[in-house]
From TrEMBL, chains A, B:
Belongs to the alpha-IPM synthase/homocitrate synthase family. GO terms for molecular function: 2-isopropylmalate synthase activity. InterPro entries: 2-isopropylmalate_synth_dimer, AIPM/Hcit_synth_CS, Aldolase_TIM, Citramal_synthase, LeuA/HCS_post-cat, LeuA_allosteric_dom_sf, PYR_CT. It holds the Pfam family HMGL-like. Its EC number is 2.3.3.21. It catalyses: pyruvate + acetyl-CoA + H2O = (3R)-citramalate + CoA + H(+). Residues 5-270 form the Pyruvate carboxyltransferase domain. It comes from Paenibacillus eucommiae. This is Citramalate synthase. It comes from the Bacteria. Pathway: Amino-acid biosynthesis; L-isoleucine biosynthesis; 2-oxobutanoate from pyruvate: step 1/3. CDD domains: DRE_TIM_LeuA3. Keywords: Acyltransferase, Amino-acid biosynthesis, Branched-chain amino acid biosynthesis, Isoleucine biosynthesis, Transferase. PANTHER family: (R)-CITRAMALATE SYNTHASE, ALPHA-IPM SYNTHASE/HOMOCITRATE SYNTHASE.
């Protein structure tokens, strides 16, 4: 049996059934391009029979060139008691201009009776006629046997007949679907193995994640002989999502030695996953396997001290194989070794400067004791270390700020901030409104600084988290504010701690701007005049 | 072999190794209580040898009563070339006062050489001595064989010797750990099966999710004979997290018919999962299997029309088995059943008053759309229902408030609030300072009300949480504030939502005081003169 497994991506079709996902035609085009770069073999673009947005996608896709992937369109078997040739759905598939079409039909007798309400015989005819018609038009046909596993468990003989009909009609692939996501790997293994005694057409698997087994079920099917895997990027999809290709591809290729994509394509996995989450406007879970920001992040002190000796002590693969990288989180659980790693990343001479090293570790411990937690705030930590080792000039100094929130009965609440800062010897005194107090403060500070540092216009606060550190005396307790900021190139995190949420936000805000201006200078050595102007030279 | 599987929860220990998770002692106590309600058999509370916060947890846990769970403490085998009796770590376990302890030791020869840098013989002695010492002190001992599967694949004979040493020394459980999360279910099945030819001690499994196979690997181990599963709520943990108990428990119990928790305990699963995500201040993925808000949500038109005929067409289990519920995303019905349950608890004639029922459900839907979420704020929901069904008089009306935060270089930040309210026809105008803006507002409001409602002196805000609802435009985004309040008798939760964190806090604060004064009147009929004075009679 071939060692090659085909990847059938349905992010653009089944993926959009997930809660919170809605893609424009433009979004879909961008995603299709990335999927092609990743090397997937089929991209299911949509259901031309069900909505006009999808028809437009296929129109545009026709004019594009894909290096690796075939674009496929999705539909269902013909309606009951009608002719395939006259079925709008099937004809839309043909008109979409794709070279491969996927249609689903019923395998579960219960569904034939309850959902489409017809006879078992008519359902078999619907499958046969539909596949036959598409084949007669020269299309490659993927037949999706919906609810196959549930159907097989309930009435094996009938479920088998349905896919035998698809085979007789000439289907190129028969995909066994665990549509409700309720099957276990053991069931998948035995049913996929059994089926191959009766079917010679290549088998595919389409799994869902309702038992958190979507990846395991896909692997089980491939191990039992399936050679196509349907799934979505980041596991997007109805209910608990489809099987996650971002885990399936590296598992098949790195762990099970199947031939899936090239090793260069595999290296693009992390980027593709994050790019698509951006386009889909969905938050990536930091702990997502293989591609998440924390997938190779180490927090426990024992783990950190071991990976310094050899990364494979606590990493199951080399992160770079999937385009990800190791991170060391600095936290109360960690010893000194986490700080050392961070300093190494930054090329600071940490080992030799023992005096400075001791002092900075004492300072970090002290800050952590106050409630600072640097694991989520790499940028604040970097500023701290650079300050200690290199000395950083302040980009401005605060003289004062005032923040006012005012609410009257039946009037919208108003937030204003007044900021007085000294920049390059000049005092700047300015005020701004905002949607809330932190927004007002952010606006006022930017307004004061923008004439000196025009680059801050490109910075945008993308996440803001507040954590109350000790609830004993809740409204008077210490709070930790974590801010995420982005510009066109990168994302960085800063934090602030105070009894006062406004002051904590101020600290995080100031760190965010400082970091942006300092790192901007660093990565672009051509910006020398800026370095001068910003007063950011080391000294 | 017994059909019963023990659940060993390590949310409080391994779970806190996850990025972004940090729990106070108070958080840990709250979570332990919930875990006990869920019916887990072991709660690993922390590592008393590694930090003082954990020591405090065990001090407090000693004074609590747990109905189902044993509290366990975590540590490692003794240091190399030393005596178990003199090992600080091991002695801390004993001093923690728990009846069960978990210690981990090395199974992988590579780790013995590289990480702890000793001989294979000394490592065996470390395991034997440590287990023996804890057993001699009367403790139940769970021996965690770290990296067992990697070790076994590399040097099966040595890996086996390590757990045989633990068995000889009297370990009650031997847990096989896939510490790096890199193993596949097939490997787990064969290794767990093989091990049982050599070991008679009951076997546990500790899996990680680095290949998105944490749940599958745990099930594979149990199917092969393991009878304890270690994992965390919502799969929190280092890197990609630990095996997720919220999926493992229902998979074992509903799908594989193991005896794990009672069916009533299983019904609390969704609530426990969401409660712990709130306490840990971690966003719940909506598509989380079994317990996520979208786990039984239907969006596709075909799916929706089929589930209206029979829910089992697209649901793998009845959602109520795990305390979750069906949602149809095209016609949002969320919240209704919660509301009905709450109304029943309050003895409101919900069924009959159809006009009022419709109106209040519309209102709640609208508020949920704005970002309100009443699951964590029973008191605010009760106020809403009482208002609609009985009519509640306001305890005061707001004319205006002003909140000022001021900071100058080298001076402590100052927060002041000015409040103008009408109480019983009198305008009260007052001001107060606070440790932060919400504290200042709280102080000013109490100062204005206390002469009319002296009871509010007994009320104390015990928790305060802020969640940013839409991070797209971070500092201008909507925020939800959740407040917990207590008096001598009880605890209640209220919430507020606004673009402005100060206004959201104000809403939650006002609800807290309203609820306190209203329920005080209700539960204490002797307080009739107060009822009169408070103007809280129904009308």
């Amino acid at each position: 049996m071939s060692n090659s497994v085909k990847i059938f991506d349905t992010t653009l079709r089944d993926g959009t059934q997930g809660e919170g996902i809605s893609l424009s035609v433009e979004d879909k085009i961008k995603i299709a391009r990335k999927l092609d770069e990743l090397g997937v073999h089929y991209i299911e673009g949509g259901w031309p029979g069900s909505n006009s947005k999808d028809i437009e996608f296929f129109e545009r896709a026709k004019q594009m060139t894909f290096r690796n992937a075939k674009i496929t369109a999705f539909g269902s078997t013909r309606r009951k008691d009608s002719k395939a040739e006259e079925d709008i759905n099937l004809n839309r598939l043909i008109e979409s201009g794709v070279s491969a079409a996927t249609i689903f039909g019923k395998s579960w007798d219960f569904h034939v009776h309850t959902a489409i309400q017809t006879t078992l015989e008519e359902n078999l005819a619907m499958i046969f006629d539909s596949v036959k018609y598409l084949k007669s038009k020269g299309l490659e046909v993927v037949y999706d046997a919906e609810h196959f596993f549930d159907g097989y468990k309930n009435n094996a003989a009938y479920a088998l007949q349905t896919i035998q009909k698809a085979q007789e009609a000439g289907a190129d692939w028969i995909t066994l679907c665990d549509t409700n996501g309720g099957s276990l790997p053991g069931e998948i293994t035995s049913i996929v193995s059994e089926i191959q005694n009766h079917i010679s057409t290549p088998i595919g698997i389409h799994a869902h994640n309702d038992c958190e087994l979507g990846v395991a079920n896909s692997l089980a099917a491939v191990t039992a002989g399936a050679r196509m895997v349907q799934g979505t990027i980041n596991g997007y999809g109805e209910r608990c999502g489809n099987a996650n290709l971002c885990s399936i591809i590296p598992n098949l290729q790195i762990k099970l030695n199947f031939d899936v994509v090239s090793s260069d394509q595999l290296k693009s996995l992390t980027l593709v996953s994050r790019y698509i989450s951006e386009i889909a406007n969905m938050n990536m879970p930091v702990n997502q396997p293989y591609v998440g920001n924390a997938a190779f992040a180490h927090k426990g002190g024992i783990h950190v001290s071991a990976i310094l000796k050899d990364a494979s002590t606590y990493e199951h693969i080399v992160p770079e194989l999937v385009g990800n990288k190791q991170r060391v989180l600095v936290s109360e659980l960690a010893g000194q070794s986490n700080v050392l790693v961070k300093a190494q990343e930054m090329n600071l001479d940490f080992g030799k400067e023992t005096q400075k090293t001791k002092a900075i570790i004492e300072k970090i411990k002290d800050l952590e004791h106050q409630g600072y937690q640097f694991e989520g705030a790499d940028a604040s930590l970097e500023l701290l270390l650079r300050d200690a080792f290199e000395g950083l000039e302040e980009i401005f100094t605060l003289e004062s700020f005032k923040m006012l929130v005012e609410k009257s009965a039946n009037h919208a609440v108003v937030s204003e901030a007044i900021v007085k800062v000294k920049v390059h010897g000049h005092t700047v005194y300015t005020a701004a409104e905002g949607n809330g107090p932190v927004n007002a403060l952010d606006n006022a500070l930017r307004k004061a600084l923008v004439q000196y540092y025009p680059d801050i216009q490109q910075i945008h606060l993308s996440d803001y988290k507040v954590r109350v550190l000790d609830e004993k005396d809740a409204t008077a307790a210490k709070v930790r504010v974590l801010m995420e900021s982005t510009d066109s190139n990168s994302t960085w995190n800063t934090l602030g701690v105070s009894n006062n949420i406004i002051e904590a936000s101020w600290f995080a805000l100031v760190d965010s701007l400082r970091y942006a201006l300092i790192s901007r200078k660093r990565i672009d050595p051509a910006n020398n005049e800026n370095v001068e102007r910003f007063g950011l030279m080391n000294h």
